[in-house]
Amino acid sequence: SPDARLARKAILMFEASRANSTGLVFDSYPGKGKLIPPFALWWVVMIADYARWRGEPELIRELLPGAREVVQRLARLDENGLLISPRGWNYVDVAQGFEHGVPPGGQPGGRSGVLHWQLIYTLVRLEELEDDFGEESFADHWRTLADEMVKSAEKHYWDKKREMFADDPDHNHFSQHAQVLAVLTRLLKRSREQQLINR
Length: 199
Fold this sequence. Notes:
The chain is mainly alpha-helical. It is about 55% helix and about 0% strand. It has helices at about 5-15, 35-55, 55-75, 115-130, 135-155, 175-185, 190-199; strands spanning about 160, 165. The protein has a two-stranded antiparallel sheet. Helix 2 runs antiparallel to helix 3 (about 55-75), helix 2 (about 35-55) packs parallel to helix 4 and helix 3 runs antiparallel to helix 4. The longest helix has 21 residues, at about 135-155.
């Protein structure tokens, strides 16, 4: 559509919802919304998509500090470099094995391969955005963090037998979600990308 007003309004309403103690977006605004951290990451991707397809550099510059804050607040890693599942309802999808839409390990304080890869994907998109706006130091920071998280995912979530990324560090659960997000990052070797697509 040549009319981008609805998408623009959605992005701005999510930005307005960040006026809360968490600094994250709520799933709806105004009104009583829920804190769904994965939605906050998708909001950052929404901004990147909007910048790619619609431009509006002045608007994107206004939104960049909020996007950075969301990522900084959610990028809490443990001693193994794995994302610590944040507080809130970590809804991803109504899928088999996802309790109330939350992937295995997605409960607050847990470790989830799906959420780990979603954050990496968000970092990739935010890095591209920072590059487009000449913010080299921010871009370098997100790129370094994404690379480190890929290494930790390869070490702790890759299952040699199944030739897939597990949803949990114990390799008891597997889903399409982790594989798709890993491929979308474009940070894997081409051979591994193809391996995941084939699986």
